[in-house]
Amino acid sequence: MTQKYQGYKRLKFDYPEERILRITINNPDRLNALDADGHRELTYVWEEVNKDRDISAVVLTGEGKAFSAGGDFDMIENIMDDPKTRLETWREAKDLVYNILNCGKPIVSAINGAAVGAGLVAALCADVPIAARGAKLVDGHTRLGVAAGDHAVIIWPLLCGMAKAKYYLMTCDPLTGEEAERIGLVAKVADADKVMDEALDVARRLANGPPAAIRFTKYALNNVLRMLGPSFDASTALEMIGFSGDEPREGVAAHKEKREPRWDQDCPI
Prior knowledge:
The chain is α/β, with parallel strands linked by helices. The protein contains twelve helices and nine strands. It has helices at 36-51, 73-81, 83-102, 117-125, 141-144, 152-160, 162-171, 177-183, 195-207, 211-226, 229-243, 247-257; strands at residues 11-17, 20-25, 57-62, 107-111, 115-116, 128-132, 136-138, 175-176, 188-190. The model has no long low-confidence stretch (mean pLDDT 96).
């Protein structure tokens, strides 16, 4: 292991094959939920990956039976309670998406189980998302009581169309990996015990291909996403505004108490 990837708390690194770096979200006791350290690491590791001339492709996955259960409740409550934390989280939420888009190395995500929140961001913003058939993908923002920020506005309408994007982002209905592949949200689907093999096969082909041609292709295609930057930035800002209100407090309480949330319908907007 090179020194550049030492010191991470929630990510682990290995090289399953020459010039392929595997990044594993590593908090299996909590379904790889991301605390503040994990969110920060997942956001900024791509800057190091981009500069690493010893690798040509990346595989991103989760340890154990989940990809990532998203942000943990301690982190969410800190966002609600502290304005400075909200601003820092807004910056990180934008940086996570843009850092993945701006990373020159092709990224393959092996979505081995549940993918929610920031984990889902990284999974779907990868260049080639590959999901296990039974993996559960859900953008749970509105269920929590905030706008669907993070990555949703920049990529869901392009991947699966506006009608499907609106439906799943407003209702928070979960998708299996199989359904996600059917509507175009992920590139490929595989049996649960084969999803890593499939991801490594794609990463191997990319790592052994012409590097400049592949990276220029990624850059050019991602310009389509960059054009949606203003809409994306607005969505993340609206998400953070929501964290200052009452709806996420009810959303968190409902999650913890395992009940349906009771929303105040007297909304002035």
